[in-house]
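User: I'm putting together notes for a lab meeting next week and I want to include a structural view of one of the chains we've been expressing. I don't have a solved structure, so I'd like a prediction I can at least talk through. The sequence is below, exactly as it appears in our construct file.
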Amino acid sequence: ARTLLYNIHEHRWDEELLGILDIPACLLPQVKGSSEIYGEACSHSFISGVPIAGMAGDQNAALFGQTCFREGMAKNTYGTGCFLLMNTGAAPTVSTNQLLTTSAWRIHGQTLYALEGSIFMGGAIVQWLRDGLGIIRESAEIEPLAATVSDNGGVYFVPAFAGLGAPHWDPYARGTLLGLTRGSTSAHIARAALEAIAYQSYDVLKAMERDSGIALRELRVDGGASANDLLMQFQADLLQVPVVRPTVTETTALGAAYLAGLAVDFWEDETTLTALWEKDRSFEPRRSPAEMEPFLSRWNEALERSKGWENKEDS
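Assistant: Thanks for the context. Below is the predicted structure for the 315-residue chain, given as structure tokens.
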């Protein structure tokens, strides 16, 4: 709730909103930067006197941990949902494509901004295949199962179990499985599920490109599902840019550590951090845009059929 009261343009609590909601400004904490010392651990703790430094939201920390310090750099965290952020530089970019404009971080008095888009169903799709349908016993089994078929066999899966998030924002959409035939198998459904994660991420990233006017040059990835090579390759084929997985995929914790380390001079600056970032693997596009266009076209058809499914009057 505090974040909603913060004016990201003026870097202070918003007086107009405080007035509307009748919240005295004195009740709110002092606004600090993302990388500074805020205090020390209490005296009765075993870490007594240790500086408390570095503060960021989880996805902002992941963007920092991926060292996306330059304008146009973007990351996607493939967790239960998918969370995409693009660094848009020193000036906020107001979205016209239903994305969130947010502060990325503020260090030494300088604020960098980002565009953010959230996808409700990422790794949660795999959990549903495991717990709901029972076609896999463990999440890790989905990649070898999906790899037993060369393509999705015409099967498309829109995982709108809780509606659609960015950039569609349709609470009335529902999960849709299309293109099934007698030849469809659990492997086709597994492959369609993985592809759905990539399609949803593609939709958000294209919205970011339209908002920012910046063409994506690469996508840095992290989170549990980034270990899925089949998914990462399909993501690269869709986006037509390299999808790059770092050696450390727990980038949220890494970013928080980086922010704290800068505050206590453990690291000198962002340039030092950039040198620490290491690539595990880069997934280069293997298929041309012409090859991928029919897949995207069918995805968009499936997407439209899922929208507005729930009766608005009954919801």
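A couple of points you could mention at the meeting. The chain is about 35% helix and 20% strand. The mean pLDDT is 94.

User: Perfect, that's what I needed.
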